[in-house]
Design a protein that fits this description.
This protein is about 55% helix and about 5% strand. It is mainly alpha-helical. It is built from seven helices and two strands, in the order H-E-H-H-E-H-H-H-H. The N and C termini lie far apart (about 40 Å). The radius of gyration is 16 Å and the shape is elongated.
């Protein structure tokens, strides 16, 4: 029910005419454990609507499987140490992702945290994402 609601919501915002949802996508959404809860669900759906080219909603399976199978490492827990360490970890992830925060190759995915959390920490630490876009 949430899947249908958000698909309709984002499709109408973007002027897309999505008439149905791919059965495999529904099964994928039902089997995924959603560690980022409703925000992660919204982000995945919004990205998929933006990238859709037809009237059937489908999600790239790798967006969910990569996020759920990432090993937890020191880099995926940037908020456990000093602010200086946190800044270095976030900046390294931003450099590796060329300033991109969300998406399967974004810094948030590399760190194993929700994009909204990373955006908040970037703001608090006053990090300029733009300096990493071309580096």
């Amino acid at each position: 029910m949430l899947l249908e609601y958000f698909v309709k919501r984002y499709a109408s915002r973007m002027g897309e005419n999505i008439r149905s949802i791919d059965k495999k996508t529904v099964e994928l959404f039902q089997s995924y454990n959603w560690p980022g809860n409703i925000r992660e669900l919204q982000n995945v759906i919004e990205r998929s609507v933006i990238l859709s080219s037809g009237d059937v909603f489908a999600v790239d399976e790798s967006w969910l499987s990569k996020e759920s199978s990432q090993p937890v490492s020191r880099a995926s827990q940037p908020f456990k140490g000093e602010a200086r360490d946190e800044r270095e970890i976030i900046e390294a992830a931003l450099a590796e992702s060329k300033g991109r925060v969300s998406g399967p190759s974004g810094a948030a995915a590399k760190l194993g945290i929700p994009p909204s959390t990373l955006e908040f920490r970037i703001k608090v630490l006053n990090i300029r994402k733009s300096q990493f876009r071309f580096g």
